[in-house]
Structure formats: C-alpha cells, structure tokens
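Dear all,

This email documents one entry for the complex benchmark we are building for the journal club exercise. For each entry we list the sequence lines for every component of the assembly. Then comes the predicted three-dimensional structure of the complex as a token string, followed by one or two observations. Please use this as the template for your own entries, and keep the labels exactly as they appear.
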Amino acid sequence: MKAILKAKESAILILFAAVFICFAQLSERFATPDNLFNVARQYSELAVVSIGLTMVIITGGIDISVGSMVGISSILVGVLGAKMGLNVWLACLLAMVGGLACGLINGLVITKLRVQPIVATLAMLSAARGLAWILSGARSLSGFPDSFVALGQTAIGPMPLSVVVALVLVTLGIVVLRYTALGRAIYAVGSSEEAARLSGVSVFRIKLFAYAVTGLLCGLGGVIMAARLASSVPDAGSGFEFEAITAVVMGGSSLKGGEGSIIGTIIGVAVMGIIRNGLNLIGVPNIWQVLFLGVMLILAVLGDNLRTWIRARQVTG
Amino acid sequence: MRTKYAIYAISIILLISFGLSGCTRRVEKPAQTTTPAQPAKSGRKIAFVMKLIGIPYTNACERGMKKAADELGIDAVFLGPPTGGDTIKQIDIIEDQISRGVDAIIISPNDDQAVKPVIQKAMSKGVKVFTWDSDAPESKRIFYVAAADDVGIGTEVIDRVAKDIGGKGKVAVMTGSPNALNLNLHVQGVEQGVKKYPGIKLVKPYLFNDDDPQKAIQLAITTLQANPDLAAFACVNSPGVPGAARALIQTGKEGKVVVWGLSLPSENRDYLKQGVVNGLTLWDPAKLTYVTTKLVNDYLDGKKPVNGMEIPGIGKLKVSPTGVIIMPGAIITKENVDQFDF
C-alpha cells in the first residue's frame, strides 16, 4: 500500500478510483464490461496520441497540433481510400506517413529553426487543419470498403481491436521510457538540455524523435478514428490538444519537462473517459462536462503537489 | 506523523470527489422528467440527441420533449454536443445512450452518412432509432419526423425573397453545417426555386455558419462588404436570420437588404417589428419534438404512424411509405409575430 502511495502516479490513481466509485454508485450501467469497453474504444485514439505527447512534454516541449494531425490523417484515409479509390490499407499507410511528415516538420522547425515549440506547433495546428478542410471540401467522406468498416467494429474477445492496439503501444511506450537508454535520454533532455548535451546525448535527435513519433501516432489515431466512424470527418481530432495535454498533466508530467510517465498519462485519459461517459449515463447536460474536467484537472495537480510536499517533508524530516 | 498528513490529504481529496458527485446528482434531477406517481410506462427511457444544444431552436425542442414526456410519464433526456457541427461528439453521445440501455434514441444528425454505423449498432442491440429535424435516409432508422417538406421550405424562402426584391438582385444564402442533410435539402429548394427568377443571382460560395451565432454575424458582414449591392439574405438555419440582422444593424444597412429565413419568432421579434427582418418561415420546434415524442412512444407500444392521422392541437400528419412524417408549419411576419410563443 505504501509503495503504491509513494509511486509518482498515486495522485491520479486515487482520483481515478474516487471518480469510478462515484459513477458506479450513480448509474447501474456504468460498471458493466460492455460500457467500459465502449469508453475504452472511444478513447483509444486519445490514448495513442497522448503517448507521443507525453514524450514531447517530458523533453520540455509542447505540441498543440496533435488534433489537427489526427484530422489531416483521417482525411487522407478518406480522400485516398474512399474518394480516389486507392487500396484502403495503402491509404492508411500513407495517412500515417502524412502524420509522421507533419511531426518531422514540427521537430525540424523547433530544433533547426529554433522556433519555440508552442509557436511552431500552433502554425502546424492551423496548416494541417486548413489542409484537411481543403482536401475534403469541408465535407465528411465515406464509402469505405466493408473490410475497413468491419475493422472498426472488430474485437479480440470482448476487447475492441483499437483498444488492443492502444494497449500494445502504451506498453511499448512504457518500456521505452523506463527501460531503454532512449527513454533515459528523453528525461535527461527535459531536466537539463545543457547537462544532457555535455553527457553526449544528441539533444537534436531526441527532440526530433519525440515530435516525429507524436506525428506518427497522430497518423495512427486518424486511421483508427476513420475506421471507428466509417467516415472521415474534417473536424476529426478538433480539441484533442486540450484533452491530451489535460491527460498528460493530470498524469503527473510537469510542463517544465523532466518529469512524467506514460502510466500516469493513460490513467489521466481513463479519468477523462469515465467522466464524460459517466455524466452522459446519468443524463447531465454536456455543458457541465467541461467544467467538471477543469475541476478534475485542478484536483489532480493539487494532489500531485501534495504528494511532492509530503515526500519532501519525509526526506528532510 | 507524516503518514497522518497523507491520510488526511487523501481523505480530503476523496471527500471533494464525493461532494462533487453530490452536485452532479442534484443537477441530474432537473434533466430527468419522470415522477414516480405516473402511470405504468414510467420504466420507459428515451433519448433525443440533437446536432447541438444551447441555441433557442434546441431549447424549444427540449421544452416540447419535456411536455410530451410529462404527459406520457416516461423518462426522456435531451442531449447534444455543446458546439455546432461536432459529428464525433454526437456519435459518442449516441453510443453512451446505447450503453445506458434506452428504449429509443431520436437523432438529428450532424452528418447523415457518419451516423449510419452507430444507428445500425443501436438497432442490432434492440434500441429503436428514429430521426427528427434532419434525416439519415440511408440508415436503418425506423421513421423520420419533419415539420415541412425539406426541399419545399427552401423554395418557400426564395419565393418570399423574390417577392420582396422584385424578382431581381444578388441573394446570399446562409446555412449551417455542410453535412446536415436537412439544411442541404433546404438549399436545394432555394436552388430549384430560384430558377423561376432569371433576374436573381445567388452569391457563391454559400455561407456556412456551423450553427454558431457569432460566425453568422461575421459571415454576413464579410458578404455585405464583398457585395455592396446585395439585395437579400436567404437563411436556412435558425442562427442565420438574427446573424444577418445584427450584421445589417452593425453596418448601417438595416432596411436596405431583405432578410427571410427559417428562424424562431422569439429570437427575431424585435428585428421583425423594426423592419430589419422581413419574415420567417418555420414550424414550432417544441411542437415538432412534442409530436415526435408521442409518435415514438406509440411505436414502442406497437402503434405505427398512419397517413392522415390527426394529433390534437397540431393537425393532420402526412406519412410517406419511406417513413417520412410531416406536420404543418407557418409563415411569420411582423403582423402576426406576437401570436407565436416559441
């Protein structure tokens, strides 16, 4: 018990448990496997995107273009796969390459051109979203082959496929961050760029990696979303940046960099998922959800600060 | 000693969470409409999922739903994304209602193509799906309730505009989201109707305000600046008319440009009386949703809608073989605007 409390993610985990118990009391459909898997399915895109964003934030940067990158990827699947009739799997691959390209552009502009991350990704946010609207004519695209639509609905056992994919990627992310030199380098760059550079870490490569991976994961997120909805919506991913950053910060990452974990982020995503789902199930108007989320964010951050304060007092006695 | 602080702190967090859950419980009560003393149907749950919530049109729909739900003694909720044009959030809400195990879902889709899979999912799980206000004709929905022939009402608007501008001039078309089927059919009606008036030119591109009142004003102002000789605005969604009206007032052109559209008398009463807006064609969205609630409830009881059936206080309904149901509407001008309370 003490070990769990001491863990970095204890604050958000406790918050998750508290919210879960509340909703389980308020709605008898909430804690059913059917409903929970449904929530997991709806949030699998956000989970995937948040993996990359966690890494970016740990390096001390930020990426507010994640929503737009999901959008352009989703539209690429639609334009290439549905409208132009390309093989749909090829379209998916190209969409992910598109996401990767956007991520690389972000990374290069930030490292080589030395533009501040928020400014660079703000530009990408507008550019990618605009491109998505232009390519789609601001209309949604559908007409995917049945095999693609079926993919969005398939499940492995009771778990939807997108959830399995998200879990695999989350595990991969956790392993990379915690147990590889690459992961340690990411934390190092976030804690102190100078110190990292002096220890032989290529700060340029690490940052580029973080932004590029985020772009690639957004590409995947766009593909998952297109399969789930069986159509490409030009506004796909709109507002994702707000949700993803909230999840990452809730999970204990510091926006200054050097701190954070994917486990925490994923619990953050889960908290946001069950809040929205729970409020819908008990019939609370959707306008309250944003307020609720803001309150949860503050509680999560306060909880985390409290934990830091407790640990500091324990160390200094 | 320090462990004590930790325990206190954690308890505070838990208490706050439970307290907040208490808040949501209190908020929950006004959103539901059942009272336990009602007749046997009180176990029935239905959900309306609108394109968005929070504009006068949708508030009126909600009133109609509540009135019917109270009379029938069923549990009805009115949901929708907080902002306009959000297809994805709307689908998420529908999925949550399926999880909730409602008996029926009634949708006004932001995108008639994108909702097809989720409608299929609902029907396959035994949740009956209907559409109202805007249709998804290619989906598995059981029937669609409209308050007008979607194409015909567009033609009506351009006919009224043409009369007021003498059959010639430039007309700007204001609509909501490019994917909403009902709006696209209204625009189709405008395009068909305008063929009768060779002197009228429709300004392209059409103005898409995404059901956002602010965007409606901005688009109208930009159009006025780009076309100083604009003769009229033809608006097919409810935020369009007050948006055009405000734009005319802000640019000092009120009274010089004709405005007709589908919008509520309650949000345009002053504009009508001051002559900024020439007239409205609409139905009462509260009555539309009231009728829909009753028809859905009847269906769940095994009573299907029949062509020519009469609803007290509303009139006769036309029911087509493809499941399209239409109820009568109204023309509203400054002379009769006070008769209407929606």
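Observations: Chain A touches chain B through 55 residues (CB under 8 Å). DSSP finds 14 helices and two strands in chain A.
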